[in-house]
Specification:
single chain, 144 residues, alpha+beta, 4-stranded antiparallel β-sheet, 2 helices, 8 strands, 35% strand, elongated
């Protein structure tokens, strides 16, 4: 279904989590996700708290799904003194390689409470189907 093929991207993600680096457009931070299949639908959820739906970019090209988002710093007054700053800022991105068994043409997306949920239907050609077995009379027709 989903193919994860870039081990270096995973190493970058772990390093960014440990050292708290800020993502840039040329080197974005990874965003946490969950993925599962329920019946004929594949679900993927991304945690994007504090990001407006307008700041999320979702693209599909050649079975590669790309999610990008940007969280900017909150507006503060000129005299504000930051006491704690732990929330990650910057650009976040994640690419998923969709297998041929998923229908990339009919992906739907919803954003609620800081979670982006994608629904990706399983392609009709990948769904299990019954194959009718012909009997003795049908065999004669096949030989003709």
């Amino acid at each position: 279904m989903l193919m994860r093929t870039d081990p270096f991207r995973e190493l970058d993600r772990i390093t960014q989590q440990m050292f708290g680096t800020t993502g840039t457009w040329s080197r974005p931070s990874a965003m946490p996700m969950d993925a599962w299949r329920d019946g004929d639908t594949f679900y993927v959820q991304f945690d994007l708290p504090g990001i407006t739906p307008e700041a999320i970019d979702l693209d599909v090209e050649q079975n590669v799904l790309t999610v990008k988002a940007e969280r900017r710093p909150a507006e503060r007054g000129d005299d504000a003194e930051v006491q704690v700053s732990e929330r990650p800022l910057g650009v976040f991105s994640r690419q998923l390689f969709l297998g041929d068994t998923l229908d990339a043409e009919h992906i739907s997306a919803a954003y609620e409470a800081g979670v982006l949920t994608l629904k990706i239907p399983v392609a009709e050609t990948a769904k299990p189907r019954k194959i009718q077995i012909s009997g003795g009379e049908d065999r004669k027709e096949l030989q003709a």
